[in-house]
Amino acid sequence: MRVVSPGMPVGRVARIAPQRIRRRGAVGRLRQGLNFAAATVQQWARRRRERAELARLDNRMLRDIGVTPADAWHEINKPFWRP
């Protein structure tokens, strides 16, 4: 004979995670998504700064770093979200 207390879930309900644990999982996923979004925005800002610096270089400086003016023009004119 099995004794069931009034506070003990029975059947299918017993397999469902308690509210507190499910909430922690949702918060973790939300935090992970926000961290990913923040990292993406930081990466976009870094690309924008690097391309602006490349645009300020003259032909002599481009030659020094081994980049042709055509390659520089191609990189400078890319949108910030494109690698």
Write up this protein.
With 83 residues, the protein is mostly helical. The chain has one domain. Helix content is 64%, strand content 0%. It has three helices and no strands. Helix 1 packs antiparallel against helix 3 (69-76). The longest helix has 38 residues, at 19-56. The mean pLDDT is 85.
Index terms:
64% helix
Helix-strand layout with pairing:
Blueprint: H1 19-56, H2 59-65, H3 69-76
Secondary-structure element pattern, one letter each: HHH
Count of spatially separate domains: 1
Biggest β-sheet, characterized? none
Pick out the low-confidence regions: none
Q: What is the 3D form?
A: rod-shaped
How far apart, in Å, are the first and last alpha carbons? 66 Å
Helix content: 55-70%
Beta-strand proportion: under 5%
Strand tally: 0
Average pLDDT value?
85
Q: How would you classify the quaternary structure?
A: single chain
Please give the count of helices. 3
Provide the gyration radius in Å.
27 Å
Structural class: mainly alpha
Summarize the structure.
By secondary structure, the protein is mainly α. Helices cover 64% and strands 0% of the residues. Helix 1 runs antiparallel to helix 3.
